[in-house]
């Protein structure tokens, strides 16, 4: 199966303007797929980045990885998120098919779908990266403001 962000051959590809050969180096070596293709609008990787790039998405998904939660429980668990923003985030995640909203006995709970559970591991990897490199990022930011 060919994804929309791949090319048939190196001859089909032209080097993106301003890349100085960096991103398109795979094309010049005759690779069939272009690793820099996440910049194309119809690339599945770009959709994934769009989904998790929101400030609260990864946090909400990770919170729901513990199990189903009610809205108020999520607010308490996450901390720092307003009820309005949580509602917007949950609706967006429902729209992507990552979260289900269940009403049982008048109580509404949110839970990850099977598709939503597939993002728990990648979000865990980002969390690990933040633990390992977060201090270096903060240090760089502080030194840049001096």
TrEMBL record:
- Record's keyword terms, sorted: DNA-binding, Transcription, Transcription regulation
What is the superkingdom listed in this entry's lineage? Bacteria
Which SUPFAM superfamilies does the record associate with it? Winged helix' DNA-binding domain
Q: Where is the HTH hxlR-type domain?
A: 43-138
Q: Does the keyword DNA-binding apply?
A: yes
Which residue ranges does UniProt annotate as crossing the membrane?
none
Q: Which InterPro entries is this protein grouped with?
A: ArsR-like_HTH (IPR011991), HTH_HxlR (IPR002577), WH-like_DNA-bd_sf (IPR036388), WH_DNA-bd_sf (IPR036390)
> Known Pfam families for this protein?
HxlR (PF01638)
Name a GO molecular-function annotation: DNA binding
> What is the protein name given in its UniProt record?
Transcriptional regulator, HxlR family
**Could you tell me which species this protein originates from?**
Streptomyces formicae
């Amino acid at each position: 199966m060919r994804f929309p962000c791949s090319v048939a051959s190196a001859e089909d590809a032209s080097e993106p303007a301003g890349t100085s050969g960096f991103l398109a180096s795979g094309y010049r070596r005759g690779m069939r797929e272009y690793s820099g293709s996440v910049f194309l609008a119809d690339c599945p990787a770009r959709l994934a980045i769009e989904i998790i790039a929101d400030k609260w998405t990864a946090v909400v998904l990770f919170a729901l990885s513990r199990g189903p939660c009610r809205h108020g429980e999520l607010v308490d668990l996450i901390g720092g998120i307003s009820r309005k923003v949580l509602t917007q985030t949950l609706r967006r995640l429902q729209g992507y098919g990552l979260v289900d909203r269940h009403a049982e006995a008048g109580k509404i709970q949110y839970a990850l779908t099977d598709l939503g559970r597939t993002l728990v591991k990648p979000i865990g990897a980002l969390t690990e990266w933040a633990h390992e490199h977060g201090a270096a990022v903060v240090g760089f930011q502080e030194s840049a403001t001096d």
